[in-house]
Amino acid sequence: MLEHCARNAPLLTLPQPNYLHRESQDFDEQSQFLQGWHQDYSQLSAGHFNGFLTHVHLPEVSLFLEFTNQQLHQQGYLDEEKISIGVPMNSIEKGMFCGSLCEQQAVHIFSGRNGFEFVSPANLTIGLIVISRKFLMQYLSDDDQERLYQQCQSAKILYLSQTKYQNLVRFLRSVFATLKALPGFIQYPTLVQETQMMALQMVADTLLCDDSAPRTVYYQNQSWQVVTKTRKIVRQRQDDPISVVELCESLAMSHRTLQYHFQRTLEKSPVVYLRTERLNGVRQMLRHANSVTEAATSWGFWHFGHFSQEYKKMFGEAPSTTFKRFHG
User: Fold this and answer.
1) How far apart are CA 47 and CA 44, in angstroms?
2) 154 CB contacts (<8 Å, ≥6 apart)?
3) pLDDT in tens, 238-256
4) What is the DSSP track for 28-91?
5) 51-57, strands of its sheet edge to edge
């Protein structure tokens, strides 16, 4: 329907194109594609990264379609004047959003004062609707404005009925299919306004939904808290790598309990996770370090032959290759 209307609608002159498709082989680079999200990615699964982000920016609404082939830890926060929901477009398993397990027919509310954390599964395609809070509020009653404010106080998962979830998926697929077939449709003011109003309706229906009393999950389970605390400890002890024994002492739990929490949340052992976090630290530091050696030793890797093998196994390339790409 959008494509048919685009061929007959009046043209809108825009100062700059507001539709872009980007592909990346670097997860850190991809994390910066989403402007205004203040986020960073860490790679949790081993192998070469591939991803893409397609996005269209309209005056009051932005729509994104993102693919990532590796399991990632995503952390960030959205600007306060924006409201965003994420819609997994394919079957999502073994993911965790702000301490809640990701299941079918669940959308992610990214807005909130304390930011968000998302362990995204491998081969995830997710659609995102980002809308101006002011634009949305002007169409709501006073009561609905208060309900929306309360709903977006913190990032969380919201479970929808199958009908409402599929409506979101169909809307996003329709928009991006039209963009692929006819990228110039964003030059038509009628379609821009129509798309914005459809997005507004979708977000309002999702966040203010009454039918079937959609289940909202606020809690952070204990296993998620253990992983979050561990990550903070690793980052704080960059040049003094913590051992599993020390970690158990710091968290006041047995090795068996620690193992259980990591297997439940990430399906990884604590040993593997600690090494993964340190390797990610090296990769991030390679952007600004003077050498691979400087980055490796800063994260406690002193056996360079072994480090290079572990790095290549994790990211699908030698650390020297990453360094050369970052520094030209």
Assistant:
1) 10
2) 98, 112, 113, 114, 218
3) 888 999 999 999 999 999 9
4) HHHHTTSTT---EEEE-S-S---EEEEEEE-SSEEEEEEEESS-EEEEE---TTEEEEEEE-S-
5) 19-24, 51-57, 61-68, 124-132, 82-88, 106-109, 156-159, 216-217
The count of domains in the chain is 2
Instruction: List, for residues 254-283, the tens digit of each pLDDT value.
Output: 999 999 999 988 989 999 999 999 999 999
Q: What pTM was estimated for this model as a whole? A: 0.88
Is the domain of 233 the same as that of 301? yes
- Identify residue 111 by its one-letter amino acid code: S
Q: Which residue range is the domain that position 297 belongs to? A: 222-327
What interhelical angle do 222-236 and 255-266 show, nearest 10? 100
Scanning the structure block, which residue is given the tokens 């158990």? 248
Specify the DSSP class assigned to residue 187: G
Boundary (domain end) residue, out of 217, 243, 266: 217
Residue 105, by phi and psi: left (phi above 0), alpha (psi -120 to 50) or beta?
Answer: left
193 and 236 inside one domain: no
Residues 202 and 123 in one domain: yes
> 122 and 256: one domain?
no
Rounded CA-CA distance 267/256 in Å is: 14
Examine the domain organization and report whether 134 and 251 are in the same domain. no
Separation CA 290–CA 154 (nearest Å): 40
Q: Do 35 and 128 contact (CB within 8 A), yes or no?
A: no
d(CA 27, CA 237): 23
Encoded amino acid at 50, one letter: N
Distance (Å, rounded) from C-alpha 114 to C-alpha 45?
26
Q: At what angle do helices 162-181 and 189-207 cross, to 10 degrees?
A: 160
